[in-house]
Amino acid sequence: MLEIHAVIVRGQTFIAGETLTCTVTFTNSSPVSADSDEEPVSKTPETLGWATAQIHCFCTVNKQRVKPPLPVEPTHPSATYGQTSFNPTVDEKGASILVTKPSIIVCDLSLLPGESKSVDYTDTIPYEAPPSYSGQLVRYSYKVVIGCQRPGGTTKFLRIPFRVLLLYGLGDTSVYKEQPETNGSSATSSINDVTNNSDDRKNPFLKGEEGASLLDCANHILELLTNKMSTSTYAVSNEKGNICSFSLPRVVYKIGEDINGFFDFALGTVPCVQYVVVLQSEETVASEAQVGVEPLDPGVTSHCRLQEGVWNVVKTHFCMSVPLTVCPAFMSDCVALRWKLHFEFTVVAVPAPKETFYSQSESSQGVLYKAPSSINVETMSWDLPVKIVATNPLVVNSCMIGQVEHSLVI
Questions:
Q1: Contact 156, 148 (CB under 8 A)
Q2: Kind of pairing, strands 330-331 and 299-309?
Q3: Confidence of residue 187 (pLDDT cuts 50, 70, 90)
Q4: Which whole number is the average pLDDT over 216-244?
Q5: How far apart are CA 61 and CA 137, in angstroms?
Q6: Cα(357)–Cα(374) distance, integer angstroms
Q7: Which of 39-43, 99-103, 110-114, 195-199 has the lowest mean pLDDT?
Q8: Close Cβ partners of 381 (under 8 Å, ≥ 6 residues apart)
Q9: Contact of 5 with 407, CB cutoff 8 Å
Q10: pLDDT tens digit string along 250-298?
Q11: Half-sphere exposure of residue 283, counting CA atoms within 13 Å on the CB side?
């Protein structure tokens, strides 16, 4: 009996363009005797004919509303799949839209009882790969598919899921150079500062030090995108007057970061009772991928929600964390994902000074104000687009717990 154990070395989250390493261990788990020397009951070796691994991206859609994408062509179109061939898409619901070249990791492997052998499968995730995404109508999922076969047996598969984050422009870093400042001085912070391999950038006390890795470049790009503080102030109003002003320090956020917003009701002429802010993603299916004549409405999914009463509040703020499980904004041939902050303001239907809503009564201690039992209100909605980008995959791996090891018995 052969056992196959596979584990992705660094974790289950990667950025498109990174190199994935999966350690595969083959073990002959035949029983051994109960003696102290642990002699095997049988000394007949177990043989594995071959084992192959490759990366697949599967796209699953709601076929009643979205046209399924065309799967990638096999390497040998003339070959017909059978029970003894390597057909990694068998029993998969979605279409395989991205496939890496298969790699033979072992061939004609013989193991005695209790013996094991470990090999490393290494492959690069393509830059153009879509991110892992689970939407209402479209889903992208990634798996390392390991196929193996014993002589005379059928092909068995071990599938290891992992997550891919997409960062646009990682392959073309020139678009992330800082633009010259208005005072004539040029900003020197650019992605080239990270990838510079000149001798003056190396540590003389470390031997064999090389330039920055792809992950370092990705982190630098993310810092350039999210560290640009440019506060935007918006005047929130309706046809009856001004409600408040809202300030947002920036509009680009990494997964896992906090979104901080600030409200100022001091100059509002329409009293506000409460506000609700929701972080939402909007899924839009491409027109050429839709089924039917009528266009599909964008699918909106809410991820975080905050609510606060602000009847007697002059200034306030909120802090909302972007979940680590969400997908950054992206666009593919089938679907586009965008992000926004959805606001709902509950305001007084007939604007008037707040003092008129209280009932007054005289007492020995002074004037007593009593809050109204009911107020005639109305709701106003507002959507503010924001951009959610990827984050350091090491942060996601350290904060999220998932199944690390996968096994198969043949």
A1: yes
A2: unpaired
A3: very low
A4: 90
A5: 5
A6: 9
A7: 195-199
A8: 342, 343, 344, 345
A9: yes
A10: 999 999 999 999 999 998 899 999 999 999 999 999 999 999 888 899 9
A11: 18
Find tokens 């050429």 and name the residue. Answer: 288
CA distances, 269 to each of 138, 253, 317, 352 (Å): 45, 32, 19, 8
Phi, psi angles (nearest 5°) of residue 391: -140, 180
What is the rounded distance in angstroms from the CA atom of residue 109 to the CA atom of residue 125?
28
Number of C-alpha atoms within 13 angstroms, CB side, residue 40?
A: 14
Can you tell me the distance from the alpha carbon of 208 to that of 202, in angstroms, rounded to the nearest whole number?
9
3-state secondary structure of 401: coil
Model confidence at 41: pLDDT above 60: no
Tell me how far apart the alpha carbons of residues 196 and 43 are, in angstroms, rounded to a whole number: 57
Model pLDDT, residue 338 = 97
Contacts of 248 by beta carbon, 8 Å cutoff, 6+ apart:
231, 232, 234, 259, 260, 261, 262, 384, 386
Residue 363: which pLDDT band, with cuts at 50, 70 and 90?
confident
Task: Give CA separation, 403 vs 3, 8, 12, in Å.
Answer: 18, 10, 9
